[in-house]
Specification:
about 450 residues; 4 strands
């Protein structure tokens, strides 16, 4: 009897044995560890931290403080002179050296500017707060990205385990088909179909292992660690406590970072309008200081001249001819306040809409997850029973393949539903600004 068809799978099985060979287990890293690593080394977060630090450096009391400047100057001149009086007497001198020395300290302090300095100070503080909010928003976005990749790794690992089991069952079916074919209990068609199915399951295993490695690479890139690191996730997907739509809406209106930034932008526009109103008021400055001047002229009648002393005074600047320009700036600033108010309302409506859509998806995904978990359990039981019948010879290999395929599809739908449900939950927490409460974040 010709058994040449039976030789085909062995090189493939040897290859799969190499691909799935046991490696030294990597050090485990849980979700909190992945988040901490990403926050510590992610380049985007480092940039956001520097931007927040710059805004913090700008938020000082500088608008209220005076300026103090010190200056010093030294000049030397060499002149040739010729003088003739009324009697016709001429006097000439060459190489006359004159030295001038000057030094001083000047303090300028703006005492009143139409409250512009107070608006400037508040504006800088508001920009500082917005910088912190932008940093927190970046952190939450990074947390969401890490969670998405982390749970994707968990799902890919589950799928790889299912693909490994499926391949093992197909290998067992192949060996059984080879034996039965050799003793003449089954046809060559059924035996060859066992090879086809084994090849298909082996290819699926290779593709799934590739998908797992690619997901690990994406996660490693986000954490800025060795891209080739893998096999360090030891976790499962667990859903949190049920979420309430009313509580989520309240948390969104209070804690959403995008909404807080929009409120900050509105406040900045209000302060800009307040600054334009200061253009209609005069400014009052205090000027004081100390000057020292010394001039040495050896060739002159007065060989030295020195003056030094304190000075002080006030200066007032009253705007007269710039009122048309000031009015235009004030009107435009007022229109900008209205624009920011409308932008704030738009952001609020969009966030509440996104929240409602995400909650609908959350509820649907929870139902589907429950359905698929139950269906997967039934499919696994059916597979186990079918395997027992197949070993007893009460079920053909082709019929057994149907139960095997049903199990593969059920497991795939189960893991997909679990992942989607978890992502829906995290999306709701991200929109409502509660990501920081779930994960310990270090700024």
């Amino acid at each position: 009897m010709n058994t040449s068809f039976c030789k085909g799978p062995w090189p493939l099985l040897a290859l799969l044995a190499c691909l799935s060979s046991h490696r030294a287990p990597a050090q485990g890293r849980d979700l909190s560890g992945c988040i901490g690593q990403a926050l510590e080394s992610n380049f985007a977060i480092k940039i956001e931290r520097n931007a927040a630090a710059m805004a913090r450096n700008n938020a000082t009391y500088n608008p209220f403080l005076p300026t103090l400047e010190a200056s010093a100057r030294q000049n030397q001149t060499i002149n040739a002179t010729r003088a003739e009086d009324a009697a016709g007497t001429v006097s000439e001198a060459s190489g006359a050296v004159s030295d001038t020395y000057a030094a001083g300290v000047a303090l300028n302090w703006r005492l009143f500017d139409g409250m512009d300095m107070f608006a400037t100070r508040e504006r800088l503080r508001e920009l500082e707060a917005m910088g912190e909010l932008s940093l927190q928003q970046g952190i939450e976005g990074l947390v969401m990205e890490v969670c998405s990749l982390y749970y994707s790794v968990v799902v890919q690992q589950y799928r790889l385990a299912a693909a490994r089991r499926t391949m093992a069952l197909s290998s067992e079916r192949y060996e059984d088909a080879q034996f039965r074919y050799e003793i003449g209990k089954i046809s060559g068609l059924e035996a060859k179909q066992a090879i086809v199915d084994l090849h298909a399951d082996s290819s699926a295993y290779v593709r799934q292992e590739e998908q797992l490695k690619n997901t690990y690479i994406s996660l490693n890139k986000t954490m800025n660690v060795d891209l080739q690191g893998d096999d360090y996730v030891r976790d499962t997907i667990r859903m949190g406590a049920p979420l309430s739509p009313g509580e989520l809406e309240r948390e969104t209106l209070e804690n959403n970072k995008l909404l807080k930034i929009a409120r900050g932008e509105r406040r900045v526009s209000e302060l800009d309008y307040k600054k334009t109103r200061a253009l209609f008021f005069p400014t009052l400055d205090l000027n004081t200081g100390y000057n020292y001047n010394l001039t040495n002229t050896p060739s002159a009648a007065t060989v030295a001249n020195r003056s030094n002393g304190f000075y002080w005074g006030f200066s007032v600047n009253v705007p007269v001819f710039n009122r048309m320009q000031a009015r235009a700036r004030a009107k435009n600033a007022r229109l900008e306040v209205e624009n920011k108010e409308w932008s704030l309302q738009q952001v609020e409506k969009e966030l509440l809409s996104d929240l409602a859509l995400a909650f609908n998806a959350y509820e649907s995904n929870l139902l589907m997850m429950n359905f698929e978990q139950e269906g997967s359990a039934i499919a696994e039981n059916n597979l186990n029973e079918a395997l027992a019948m197949f070993k007893l010879g009460a079920l053909s290999g082709i019929d057994f393949r149907q139960f095997q395929q049903s199990y593969i599809n059920a497991v795939d739908r189960k893991f997909a539903a679990m992942y989607q449900a978890k992502m829906s939950e995290l999306s709701l927490l991200l929109i409502s600004g509660q990501a920081r409460e779930l994960f310990t974040l270090q700024d």
